[in-house]
Amino acid sequence: MAVKMNHSDVDLVETHEINVTPFIDVMLVLLIIFMVAAPLATVDVNVDLPASTAQPQPRPDKPIFLTVKADQSLLLGDAPVAKDGLGAALDKISADDKTQTIFLRADKTVDYDTLMQVMNGLRAAGYLKIALVTLDQSQAR
Fold it and tell me: In angstroms, rounded to a whole number, what is the distance separating the alpha carbons of residues 83 and 74?
């Protein structure tokens, strides 16, 4: 038995197109992997912030102290002030000078949300220079 193969003089035509389907499949798998892994990379850690070791800055002649007590009440100097009347009280004590630095001190039991609400109130009143008052590390021990 003999098999006759027909060999023609025509060579096979080469195609110069790249098959991108496997490339797209790999990229989609990598995208899904990163979408799943990215939220897992963030860390939610409870933090106990240390006392500051920074050198104290010189105090102005008449500093304005705003204190947030443990019961979340506010004191401007030694006088109690309501949260909604904070801007007017600051304008009165600073003689409407919004460039003065407000020294903000808070009890260590005050939560972060309350502190941020007070700072937002200061910003809404136009007082943008806020200094946080802390204990010196040597005094904290």
Answer: 7
